[in-house]
Design goal:
158 residues; alpha+beta; Chemotaxis protein chec; 7-stranded antiparallel sheet; globular
Length: 158
């Protein structure tokens, strides 16, 4: 995967966490995931299509998801499970949407967000997409951004 594909997602996550959640996200060293299991119990996912295709995953522990949801919902009490899921879906949508704006040349369309929960859940990327993980540390705990995006090659008619 090309660096110019992942950098907009990194900067978008940092900006969204700062502006929407008043929470600083410090980037760690990117890595290629060795296994298909997520490190944390909650993942917001969004599919991307256009001149490039792939998936974006925001993976976080339940404790971080709760703090993000409470901040987004402007409440001190733990949200209902449905509200927590909606908040993480919206957070993922904001990150993907902001990155999409920086990748205009890819003419990306963003799918509706999905949220997957449960320890050791798996998210499968297409076989031709090699995702890159970028860990972040926040005052609330860890967050992992996973982006798998590849350019679409045009089919030649014959």
């Amino acid at each position: 995967m090309r660096a110019e594909y992942i950098n907009p997602f990194i900067s978008s996550l940092v900006r969204i966490f700062q502006q929407m959640l008043s929470c600083e996200a410090k980037r760690g060293a990117p890595f290629i995931p060795a296994a298909n299991q997520r490190r944390h119990a909650i993942s917001g996912t969004i599919g991307l299509s256009g001149m490039a295709v792939g998936t974006v995953v925001v993976n976080l522990p339940r404790s971080v998801a709760l703090k993000a949801a409470k901040t987004m919902l402007m409440t001190d009490t733990d949200p209902a499970e449905a509200d927590l899921i909606d908040a993480i879906g919206e957070l993922t949508n904001m990150i993907a949407g902001a990155a999409k704006a920086q990748l205009e040349e890819c003419e990306l369309a963003v799918s509706l967000p999905n949220v997957i929960t449960g320890e050791n859940h798996a998210i499968h990327f297409p076989s031709n997409v090699a995702p890159i993980c970028v860990p972040f540390e926040t005052p609330w705990g860890p967050v992992v951004l996973e982006v798998g995006l590849t350019a679409v090659t045009a089919a030649v008619g014959g």
